[in-house]
Structure formats: C-alpha cells, structure tokens
Amino acid sequence: MQQLVILGATGSIGQSTLKVVSEHPARYQVLALTAASNVTAMLELCSRFQPKYAVMANQDAAVELRQQLPARLSGIEVLAGHEALADIAAHQDADIVMAAIVGAAGLLPTLAAVRAGKKVLLANKEALIMAGSLFMQEVRRSGATLLPVDSEHNAIFQCLPASLQQAVSKHQLPADSLAQHSVNKLMLTASGGPFLQRPLHEFASITPEEAVAHPNWVMGQKISVDSATMMNKGLEFIEAHWLFQCPVDSIEVVIHPQSVIHSMVQYTDGSVIAQLGQPDMCTPIAYALAYPERIQTTVPALDFSRMSDLSFCLAEKARFPNLYLAIEACRHGQAGTTALNAANEVAVEAFLRRQLAFNDIARLNEQVLEQMAEQTANDLEHILTIDARARQLAQQQLGAYSL
Length: 403
Ligand code: NAD
Ligand code: MG
What we know:
Blueprint: E1 2-7, H1 12-22, E2 28-35, H2 39-49, E3 53-56, H3 59-68, E4 77-80, H4 82-89, E5 96-99, H5 107-115, E6 119-122, H6 125-142, E7 145-148, H7 151-158, H8 162-170, H9 177-180, E8 183-190, H10 208-212, H11 221-229, H12 231-243, E9 251-255, E10 261-267, E11 272-276, H13 282-290, H14 321-332, H15 334-352, H16 360-372, H17 380-398
Parallel strand pairs: 1-2, 1-5, 2-3, 3-4, 5-6, 6-7, 8-9
Antiparallel strand pairs: 8-10, 10-11
Helix pairs in contact: 2-3, 4-5, 5-6, 6-12, 6-15, 12-14, 14-15, 14-16, 15-16, 15-17, 16-17
This protein binds nicotinamide-adenine-dinucleotide (NAD) and magnesium ion.
The site of magnesium ion (MG) has 4 residues, from helix 7.
C-alpha cells in the first residue's frame, strides 16, 4: 500500500488523480489532501477519502474546515499555511506526492517533496519554469524520482527506451544522453486551442468564457487561458528542456488540433515514436502513479474506425506570440523564464478579471521579459526575488492597458 499526498487536490488534476486512486484501493491510500481555500470541495474529498491530514493554504479556510468537519471525521488533522504545505509534501510517511498546485505557488511544496526524496508526479510545470536547473539538481542529490504528468512530457517519456526513462526520472543524464540514444528531436504536439481559426482582428474582443472553453481538454482556468494563447506550449517547451536535458534546437512544436497524438520522439534512423490516446489526464496520471508498471483506467480505447483525419501545422508567430516569447526566454536562461512565468500569471489573472484584452497578454509579457531577462538567477532566493519583481512590473504596467 503506497501513501499518497495530493497537492492541489481540489483542482482538475487533483480530481483526476483521486479518480484513478479510487479505482485502485488496494494500491494507494490517501495520506494528505491540500487546497488553497475551497472548504466545500475539501469537505467532500475528506468525507470520501478520509486522509490523515487536510491542509488549506489559507488560514481562515482551515479554521472553517475544522469547524465544519463532522464528528466521524474528527480524526483528520487540519493544518494551515504555506509551511504546512511544504511539511506535508516531505512527510516521512508519504511515498508519492502529486504536485498539482497551479502556478508559482507550487514551487516550494514541490521542491520540499523532491528534497525529501519522494516519488514526485509533476503536473505543476511552473516549478520547472522558475527553477529548472536547481530543481533537477535536487532530484539527483536527494534520490527522488520525478515523473512527468503533463500529457506531452508523459508521452515523450513513454516513447523513450527504458534505460533512458530511468535516467530521466532520477536526473542521472549526462549532457548528451538523448543524442547517445539516437534521439534527434522531441516533438511537442499542441491542439492550437480554441482560436486556431479565429480571424486575428477579433483577438482583442475575445472573452474569458471563450478562452477557457478548450476544444479537447477539461482543465483549470489558468492553463486553459495559457492553452488559448499557446503560452502553455511555451511553458511546456521549457519544461521539456529541463526534464529531458534537451537542447533548445532539438525541441519542436507541432499543432495537431485533434489531440490524439500527445507528443512524439524522432530518432536518427528516421523513426518517429508517438504516444496516442483519448485527451484524458487519467492516462498520464495512472502511468506516473504506477511507473514502471501499468494499471487499468476507465479511459476508453481509441476507436480508429471513427477517426477520419489527423492533421498538423506549424504555429504562426502573429497568432501565438507567447509561444515564441517562451522559446526566446528559454534561450536566455532562468531569469527570463521566471520573469515570463510571473508576468504571465499576472496577465492571465487580469484577463480573467476583464482588465486586460486577450491580445495584450503577450504584449505585457514581452514588456516584462525585456526588462528582466538579463538578470541572473543562480539560487532560490534570486529566483523568488525575480518572480516578485516581475509581478510588480507587470502590475505597474497593467494600468497602461486597462480596458
Ligand atoms: P486548477 O486550477 O484546477 O487547480 C489548482 C489547485 O491548486 C487547486 O486544488 C487549488 O486549491 C490549488 N491552489 C491554487 N492556488 C494555490 C495556492 N496559492 N496555494 C496552494 N494551493 C493552491 O489547476 P489544474 O488544471 O488542476 O492544474 C494544476 C497544475 O497542473 C498546473 O500547474 C497546470 O499547468 C498543470 N497541468 C494541468 C493539466 C490539466 O489537464 N488540468 C494538464 C497538464 C498540466
Ligand atoms: Mg500539457
């Protein structure tokens, strides 16, 4: 029986994880669930999964949760705050930690799980965008096992030979490991989101409701907006660079609107190996949970008799400037990616509050990136300073764009 901590249990990935876990009660037991502030959702999860610990990032929410827990659940210890999140991620009884907090808030608890040598299932891509180098060094130092949950990275991982998978998950990769294993390129597929065909002159009037309505995947709000601007693919580009120690010029992005192929690996002999499946996160979550085994899920198999065409195209710069900003930031280094991620979090929030036009998200991001990319970010303190400074700059500049 493996003990599981789910950071971000009330979110989209958290819920899918609990779905997979509930189908394998003999394998996994929920040790702890965490959330930001949604007491109602946490109460329901506590009742269904009866964890030992429930952690709310928000102090008031923790007080409320404690008051509302029924007597039969009084054994659940309710904890509060960011330190408690990091402590629970490193808890001595935890075997597996699902890192599914959204945004920069996930960095410290995810890093705590890595430093404690856990098996870490990484959905929180922002942790790698902010601190890829440091994060991966900590994986190697602590002996943690890092498994990608993001569907593209999970697909690429599945398309690699077993020996390379092992080296990736332990970060024991010499600089040119991919080339030594005859890998030529990592090919990230992207759906292109809801606005692949939308005329560019309409971009300024795109609403939050339209942007979060992803054609293929059901996800949290932030990643849905990032998918619509393709910043998500940009962040995934940076994520692939760190996870697989892959040079920037060996990563390619291909738009594939049907989201059947979840990503591919191109080898030097001309072979391309792809992972296919339904657009359902339960598959990569189950793969990461049980790795190196496979466990059953309720995700239906692909029906090829009903799949008429799989199409592919490249991402135009004018339509998806955020993708190209992220690739540029990746070339620049850690300060650039940290600043871009922070600016983007501010911009997406402002867009969701209807304070920023859809096409101004990339403009704001670019402005902040230009001002911050030359800084250095060698350690966690620097990284957190750059993150805070980039947020401040983005907030200041928001005024100039106000709707
Ligand atoms: P979500 O918004 O649905 O859920 C986020 C979770 O994080 C919630 O449980 C929330 O309570 C918690 N949270 C938010 N802010 C917090 C804070 N400040 N402190 C502590 N907890 C906080 O997001 P999601 O779609 O589940 O995505 C989670 C992560 O997984 C993101 O990094 C995203 O990029 C990544 N991811 C998601 C998907 C997907 O299909 N949803 C796919 C690939 C990767
Ligand atoms: Mg993804």
